[in-house]
Amino acid sequence: MADLLYEIVNEPIQVESLVKKVSVREAGAITTFIGTVREWTKGKRTIYLEYQAYIPMAVKMLAQIGKEIEEKWTNTKVAITHRIGRLDISDIAVVIAVSSPHRKAAYEANEYAIERIKQIVPIWKKEHWEDGETWIGDQLEKFPYKDGKPILKDVEL
Amino acid sequence: MIKILLFADLQEKVGKPELELKLEQITVEELKSELQKIYPLINLESVMTAVNEEYAMADDAIKSGDTVAFIPPVSGG
């Protein structure tokens, strides 16, 4: 499975494997983003998180993000893996690797990818706090989806 | 038969991840109000809809055999 560029997995993510997926001879830079489980959010302590995904569509949306990036920043290559299931504090939830001939595009495209994940990829996080649990939505505070569709406008960087 | 997939809090409120409704054709908006009648506790207002894994609009048609997913605001990353 090492050559799938967009994956939803149940097991821990190996960052190095994503680096390898985007490592090409044209690349002069590879950026990685590693999203981890934070213990404290606005004064509330998280015990663990639970992620759920609509897997086939989530993979499609990750691939769409990759396609958008490859169109916006030429000669970039993208790999994204998101983990689901139960994750403890400091566990890696998502890894994004972008390679590019030059570093600026690699940085920008990587940030674009995480912003788009938070807009269009059907993955949900349930916070298990010390004193209860909540499904989290609307982290970008740009919703609700009045027309029943996601906001697809460009991400500002 | 239309297959409906539910996630996150919707899945918990309905108590199951999947539903099947015997319908021939319906729009996204109509299907939402049908479900709202059956499950008054759920709120589908800020929920997106995907038909066969593609985001759909309120007046898009759903036919028997389609899979509809109701997608609450996402929180990946």
What about the largest sheet of chain B? 5 strands, mixed
Span between termini of chain B: 34 Å
Q: How large is the share of residues in beta strands of chain B? A: 35-45%
Tally of individual helices of chain A = 3
Cα radius of gyration of chain A in angstroms: 16 Å
Strand order of the largest sheet of chain B: 2-1-7-4-5
Beta-strand segment tally of chain B: 7
Strand percentage of chain A: 35-45%
Q: Which structural class fits the helix and strand makeup of chain B?
A: alpha+beta
- Which fold name corresponds to the CATH topology of chain A? Aldehyde Oxidoreductase, domain 3
Mean pLDDT of chain B: 96
CATH fold annotation of chain B: Ubiquitin-like (UB roll)
**What is the domain total for the residues of chain B?**
1
Q: What's the quick description here?
A:
Chain B: Belongs to the MoaD family. Chain A is α+β, with helices and mostly antiparallel strands. Chain A has helices at 15-22, 55-72, 103-120, and strands spanning 6-9, 29-36, 40-41, 44-53, 77-83, 85-88, 92-100, 123-129, 132-136.
